[in-house]
Specification:
This protein has helices at about 5-15, 30, 35-50, 70-75, 90-100, 115-140. It has about 140 residues and is mainly alpha-helical. It has one domain (about 5-140). The radius of gyration is 21 Å and the shape is elongated.
Length: about 140
């Protein structure tokens, strides 16, 4: 059976934080400054090590998106900004490890069928690429 010490060791391995300073009800993301892909790596490692079914885990309640620049996020809220954040604590991880599944009862919510923030970013990058191509072609034609 999983123990809190094992959960602390997993968190320490992912974050570099000293396990002897950890507390059962601390917010792992905020306390250790992990978010995005780093937080996702922690959850994947947790699921593998403790054989926890994470199929009902909803990332956007617990962490932000990876990446600093999301211009589309200024116009269209990404999933993590559409819900109230729920901290993940060592005691939550221990409970899931002992049950073998992530059984958090998430609040009722609705997300758009598409990530319009990411679609906007892709459109913006394509427009910039086309603009650069047009400028290059016009300079080559003038030469």
């Amino acid at each position: 059976m999983a123990s809190l010490a094992e959960i602390y060791t997993l968190i320490a391995n992912q974050t570099g934080a000293p396990p002897d300073k950890m507390r059962p009800d601390e917010d792992i993301g905020l306390t250790y400054g992990i978010d995005g892909d780093d937080f996702e790596d922690l959850m994947e490692s947790f699921g593998e090590k403790f054989k926890v079914d994470l199929s009902t885990y909803k990332w956007y309640f617990h962490r932000g998106d990876e990446g600093v620049l999301n211009l589309g996020g200024l116009l269209f809220s990404p999933p993590n900004r559409r819900v109230v954040r729920i901290p993940v604590t060592p005691s939550m991880l221990l409970g899931a490890a002992r049950m073998g599944s992530w059984n958090l009862d998430y609040p009722s919510h609705t997300l758009p069928s598409r990530r319009y923030d990411l679609l906007f970013n892709q459109f913006l990058l394509a427009a910039i690429a086309v603009g650069i191509l047009v400028i290059w072609i016009s300079r080559v034609a003038d030469a």
